[in-house]
Design goal:
Layout: H1 4-16, H2 24-45, H3 49-68, H4 76-104, H5 117-120, H6 142-148, H7 155-175, H8 181-191, H9 207-222, E1 236-240, H10 247-257, E2 261-266, H11 267-272, H12 278-292, E3 295-300, H13 303-306, H14 315-330, E4 339-345, H15 353-358, E5 361-364, H16 370-381, E6 387-388, H17 391-400, H18 406-422, E7 439-440, H19 441-450, H20 457-470, H21 477-484, H22 499-510
Parallel strand pairs: 1-4, 1-5, 2-3, 3-4, 6-7
Bound molecules: adenosine-5'-triphosphate (ATP) and magnesium ion (MG).
Adenosine-5'-triphosphate (ATP) is lined by residues 203-206, 243-249, 344, 346, 365, 368, 372, 376, 406-407, 410.
């Protein structure tokens, strides 16, 4: 356990030579010290938040020294550490402010949940502090409560992750110096995706797909020390299922929810936009992913580049496939590699066998069930303020739309929303907006006649058959609950900050 004395000695040494270039080792030492001290605060926050605050403040002092250290322009690792420490420091300061305010106003202090800070990558602690007391029956379950926190990703988090991706990109720029500059620019500017700000709960239903993705990609990135050896996760994931049901949406959500660099590439753009260069692009893409790991490489419409090889296909497409297979194996050589490849397709049966073998985890993304349809409809309608549809009518709609995909439902709601406008005829030109009548159930009755489901029963059967033969949808609710709640040491109560969560939190700090 580091002591105050050593913290002060560091501060003193810093004070002596503030303008000199510092060493990364020194920075890491301060990082460790602040970690230990803040950890001490964590331990006692539940029972004595005021004393914990003392420790947090000591931690903050050391962190402040660390973020002020000077580094040369090439010390990208140091700048990454400083950036993370800065974010963490702000959150600990936030927690201290909360404790101080609550003490001043004599309110209960609330839970230690602020200390989800290291795993939330900058999520503001207003999202993090749970209400101080629960009234039995009146408050949603802990799990539901924590899920509420995941409903939307606050802008500040989006900005924080984007800023961190920017930093990583800069670091990558150095590492990828030897790469063809044109390709490197394409990868860093067009392929590396920014945080789209979509949370798991923007996706209705698809619980098992979400769970499987988290098990394959989120948890192993969170706890690489556990997921090694025999427990090493699947490095290749395939999302398959009928069109319009959220495969691409799920992947975009991963880009928001994972603290990994997300490379998103569509097979059609790979073959058309960079024709001739596509093989090189794949090579560079994987090199960049290795250099920037933890990373996720997402290939949409994967069947169109990695379909079954045949004697008729042209030379360049065959070379592209071979390159992909070689690169895929290349990123999976070491246990410590943290590159996950995710492919999405609505034609899994067209995939080359060698590719299928590499995408070990094959997750079925089916048509939404009644509950998911209800949630999609509710979500879509929540965007409109002028609605006159009762709860039981919504349920009825959900039942009546059996066989509709997510995007079919979107089309249906759009159609229904246009009904009040269609009635206006020529008067649309000068009709004040507030006089437009609300969308009602009758509008859906009309719309349903025009918007039919796009996926046939036969194709659903074919998907189910393929899923039986090659699919893998494995659940481990307990593990996944931890991953989903990583924001959410969050909505949980004091008692729920279990040792395993603490370990997660701490490991996250260690892996800064
Ligand atoms: N489960 C869902 N929850 C919320 N929205 C959904 C869901 N499924 C689909 N959608 C909506 O449908 C749109 C289309 O989904 P998406 O593009 O992810 O489909 P896809 O499975 O990738 O289809 P394709 O196979 O044609 O590429 C999404 O942008 C989203 O608005
Ligand atoms: Mg798609």
């Amino acid at each position: 356990m580091p002591c105050l004395f050593s913290a002060f000695s560091f501060m003193a040494s810093y004070a002596r030579a503030p303008a000199q270039t510092s060493s990364v080792e020194e920075l890491k030492k301060l990082q460790r010290q602040s970690f230990d001290i803040v950890s001490g605060g964590l331990d006692i926050d539940e029972v004595d938040p005021i004393q914990a605050m003392g420790l947090y403040k000591r931690g903050i002092t050391i962190m402040r020294q660390a973020v002020r250290m000077n580094f040369g322009p090439n010390e990208t690792e140091a700048r990454l550490i400083q950036d993370k420490m800065q974010q963490n420091m702000e959150q600990i300061e936030d927690r201290c402010r909360t404790i101080e305010e609550r003490v001043a106003s004599r309110k209960p202090i609330g839970t230690v949940n602020a200390l989800s800070f290291p795993v939330t990558h900058g999520r503001p602690s207003s999202q993090i502090i749970a209400p101080p007391t629960y009234v039995a029956g009146a408050i949603p379950s802990k799990y539901e409560k924590s899920m509420e926190n995941l409903k939307s990703i606050p802008q500040s988090v989006v900005q924080a992750t984007n800023a961190s991706t920017e930093l990583k990109k800069k670091a990558a720029f150095e590492k990828l110096k030897t790469m063809d500059p044109k390709i490197r620019d394409i990868i860093l500017n067009e392929v590396v995706m920014d945080n789209p700000g979509i949370g798991w709960d923007h996706i209705s239903g698809l619980e098992s797909a979400k769970q499987a993705l988290q098990e394959a990609a989120v948890l192993p990135l969170l706890r690489p020390d556990i997921f090694r050896g025999l427990r090493s996760p699947a490095r290749g994931v395939l999302l398959f299922g009928p069109p319009g049901n959220g495969k691409t949406f799920l992947a975009r959500c991963m880009a928001s929810e994972c603290d990994a660099v997300f490379f998103g590439i569509s097979a059609s753009s790979l073959t058309s936009k960079w024709v001739g260069d596509s093989e090189k692009l794949v090579r560079c893409l994987f090199t960049a992913a290795r250099n920037l790991q933890p990373a996720i490489v997402f290939i949409d419409e994967i069947d169109s580049i990695l379909g079954e090889r045949s004697t008729q296909e042209n030379e360049s497409s065959r070379r592209l496939k071979t390159e992909f297979l070689v690169q895929f194996d290349g990123v999976n050589t070491s246990d410590s590699d943290q590159v996950v490849v995710i492919g999405a397709t609505n034609r899994p049966q067209d995939l080359d066998e060698a590719v299928r073998r590499r995408l070990v985890k094959r997750i079925y993304v089916p048509l939404p069930d009644t509950e998911a349809r209800l949630s999609i409809i509710k979500n879509l309608l929540s965007k409109e303020s002028n609605i006159d549809i009762k709860a039981d009518q919504m349920k009825q709609l959900a039942r009546r739309t059996n066989g509709y995909s997510g995007s079919d439902l979107a089309a249906l709601c759009k159609n229904a929303a246009l009904e009040p406008v269609r009635e206006l005829g020529a008067s649309i030109k000068n009709m004040p907006l507030d006089q437009l009548r609300p969308i009602n159930y009758e509008d859906f009755n009309h719309a349903i006649k025009k918007s039919k489901p796009s996926v046939s029963a036969e194709s659903v059967e074919a998907f189910e058959e393929w899923e039986k033969q090659f699919g893998s949808t494995k659940k481990d609710k307990k593990l996944v609950a931890y991953a989903r709640n990583r924001t959410a040491v969050v909505g949980a109560t004091i008692q729920s900050t279990t040792p395993i969560l603490r370990k997660l939190v701490r490991s996250r700090l260690r892996h800064l």
